[in-house]
Amino acid sequence: MPLKTLICGAYTYGNQGDDAIKSVSVRMLRDAGVQEITIARPYPDETLVQWADVVIIGGGGLLYDSDQVHFDYFFKQYGTWAMQHKKKLLFCGVGYQGIEQKENISLLNELFDYAALINVRQQADADVLHSLGLLQNILVADDLAFAAAANSSYTFSLPRKPALCIIPSRLSKNFDAYQWMAETAIALGYDLHIAVTSYEDIPLAEKLNEAIYEHDSIRVFKYLAYGEIIHLLHQMDVVITARYHGVVFANNLSYQSHPKVFIHSGKHKLVNQLSASANLCDVVESKNKDAFEAKLRDEKPLLVMKHNISDLTEQLRSILLN
Q1: Which of 16, 169, 190, 197 has the least CB density, counted as fewest CB within 10 Å?
Q2: Which residues of 135-158 are buried (b: 16+ CB within 10 A; e: fewer)?
């Protein structure tokens, strides 16, 4: 060491969760003594793999093939190139979202057999991979974005208390739920905010704001970086989200206390799994307004999970040193 390290992840596309993972990954590598780090470009480049000693794929929910171009970029190209050029290959912080094609499962099996580390961010991800026959030793460690640095220097006028922030997701397809939860919170006296963790959710945030625009206390945050989002959420009493990293940011490791986090029990599999297993958030059942109002009135805090990011840090350091 120092080893030349290439990181391939879903970075710089306007998703603040993925960008937070990149920053924490770089910090971990620096702490482990790695000095030369390159982030893969948007277009596949085999010369980057030839330059590197180590290729890291992740993090983010990369394990899906509903978009074959996406799958090919990370696995058929960067993963296969690392194997062909005999580079050390690590999968760090990847999440499973659905692998359907048999040839893709076969390729993953080959890559996982070769890899020095396979790390997923939830036990449910490991269980699904095992069910697909991917039986290699898989390390489960929490999403690296839990350890992202908050930007406490970001200034905005403090909200009136109590304060609530909604983080919508275009993927959840439950706009009506956002609207009635927002209106319920406003009726209970909450100061309402809307923030996005992915630029693709901006139209939905604007639509939600327009639907309840008569409440002039609403503030919409559309272009915050991840550190600013983390700081904003920890000024809130309640966060409503269907974004995985909305839950993660609201439970950031930098803070001793956290807002209460609610998710709508709709389409977002990853957030629901996280909620069920880790007490990070509470589930709001569809159209059950009375239950949601009772949850808002309940002052009992949610339990905060014990993080095991250090497990990944130790494994990473050991692999890089050997």
Answers
A1: 190
A2: eeebbbbbbbbbbbbbeeeeeeee
The pLDDT of residue 155 is: 74
The CATH number given to whatever domain includes residue 136 is 3.40.50
pLDDT tens sequence across 18-61: 899 889 889 888 888 888 999 998 789 999 999 999 999 987 88
Question: What pLDDT digit, counting tens, does each position of 144-163 carry?
Answer: 888 898 887 877 776 678 89
Query: 184 and 134, same structural domain?
Result: no
Strand, coil or helix: what is 135? Answer: coil
Evaluate whether residue 148 is within a structural domain. Answer: no
Q: Is residue 154 part of a domain?
A: no
Q: Are residues 291 and 313 in the same domain?
A: no
Enter the tokens of residue 148. Answer: 């992202």
Do the domain assignments include residue 153?
no
Single pTM value for the model: 0.86
Between CA 314 and CA 8 the distance in angstroms is 21
Is residue 5 within 8 A of residue 56, CB to CB? The reply is yes
- Identify any residues that bridge with 210 across adjacent strands, giving them in sequence order: none
Cα separations in angstroms, 200 against 70, 168, 204:
17, 10, 8
